[in-house]
Amino acid sequence: MSSKQHVTVIGLGPMGQAMVRALLAEGHPVTVWNRTASRADDLVRQGAVLAGTVEEALITGDLVILSLTDYDAMYAVLEPAAHALNGRVLVNLSSDTPEKTRAGARWVTGHGGVHITGGVTVPPSGIGKPESSTFYSGPREPFEAARPTLEVLTRTDFRGEDPGLAALFYQIGMVMFWTSMLSYWQAIALADANGLTAADILPHATDTMASLRGFLAFYAARIDAGRHDGDVDRLAMGTASVEHVLHTNADAGVDTTLPAAVVELFRRGMDAGHAAGSFSSLVELMKKPAA
Ligand code: NDP
After folding, report:
1. pLDDT per position as a tens digit, 234-266
2. Residue 65 confidence (pLDDT)
3. ∠ CA 45-51-53 to the nearest 5 degrees?
4. Is residue 2 part of a domain?
5. Which residues are CB-contacts of 42 (< 8 A; sequence separation ≥ 6)?
């Protein structure tokens, strides 16, 4: 009999599958359930047990991990078996907004279960790797009890008891990830229009992204101090530069949605009178307006 926690994983997309493999590799008994049962076939060959019903899946594991597309999928899967949530510890690694995760936590708690929110910051290939990390939030004691098992998946980064916090940290990362990757697609489109491949620009793209690290630290201290001095950069200079970017893309005949949106924000900063300050002043335009 294994001394490792028996884990149930509900949701066998690429992420859930990677989690099951990592748990099996560490000797955990694993029960799985998925709407499309055939996605469990390989995992069953590797030692997982396919539950016949969601209810059976919920009551079999000491710990229940959800890896679904979003919280609507959680309701779709769990509502018919909600009576079986009583006394169960759910670690919900499905992504959604902080508000939806808070509502989901209330729903699980209302049925007598424990809800721990998670936000995985790596793709499935990062599961089981020591450098990977996941944000968690929710009741601390059950989290600490689950931690050794969760650390089979990735390192754990507990942010506090508010169930929305893990989702908030996850979304803070995602707003940067999606926008940064779109900027990379834009660069590749511009390169392509000029006869260059993604591979041709890869070293330059990598250096450019790596240089952002220094900018983040430099501006964080100034922004928290409420300073947008124009001693290093001026918004007027930045506006001229982003207009060059927009025109370079337009001249090349590529899509200009993204560079045009950037120019629009810079122009709003100019209109608000920030020309002589740093382009970090744009953050003041983006913040929630004071009540
Ligand atoms: P997928 O969307 O590919 O699969 C998730 C699972 O959700 C599938 O098992 C699917 O079942 C199930 N599902 C979706 N809708 C329903 C529904 N209405 N009823 C029942 N089951 C449903 O997601 P991933 O595996 O890629 O990711 C899982 C979670 O992890 C997501 O929240 C994602 O944001 C997050 N994440 C993913 C990363 C990635 O790179 N993949 C990275 C970081 C986080 P079925 O097989 O039947 O379709």
Report:
1. 999 999 999 999 999 999 999 999 999 999 999
2. 98
3. 150
4. no
5. 17
Residue 143 lies in a domain: yes
Pocket flag, ligand 1, residue 123 (CB < 6 Å) = yes
d(CA 12, ligand 1 centre) in Å: 7
> Given this model, what pLDDT does residue 3 score?
82
Residue that finishes a domain, picked among 129, 160, 191: 160
Gap from CA of 13 to ligand 1 centroid (Å): 5
| Residue 18 beta carbon below 6 angstroms from any ligand 1 atom | no
Ligand 1 atom 6, closest CA: 68
What's the pLDDT score for residue 291? 80
Q: How many angstroms does the Cα of residue 103 sit away from the middle of ligand 1?
A: 19
pTM for this predicted structure: 0.92
Evaluated on CA atoms 65, 68, 71, 77, the torsion sign reads negative
Tell whether the model's pLDDT for residue 281 goes beyond 70.
yes
Residue among 39, 42, 69 whose CB has most ligand 1 atoms within 8 A, to mutate: 69
End of a domain among 160, 178, 206? 160
For residues 179 and 155, state if they share a domain.
no
Could you tell me the distance, in angstroms and rounded to a whole number, from the CA of residue 91 to the centre of ligand 1? 15
Q: Is 153's C-beta closer than 6 angstroms to any atom of ligand 1?
A: no
In a domain, 291, yes or no: no
Q: Which range of residues forms the domain containing residue 220?
A: 168-286
Helical ranges in the chain per DSSP H: 14-25, 41-45, 54-60, 71-78, 98-110, 140-150, 164-193, 198-224, 235-252, 257-271, 282-286
What's the CATH number where 199 sits? Answer: 1.10.1040.10
Cβ atoms of residues 73 and 50 within 8 Å: no
Asked if 216 and 104 sit in the same domain, the reply is no
Q: With beta carbons less than 8 A apart as the criterion, state whether 52 and 81 touch.
A: no
Q: Is residue 184 part of a domain?
A: yes
Output the CA 68–ligand 1 centroid distance in Å.
Answer: 4
CATH code where residue 125 lies: 3.40.50.720
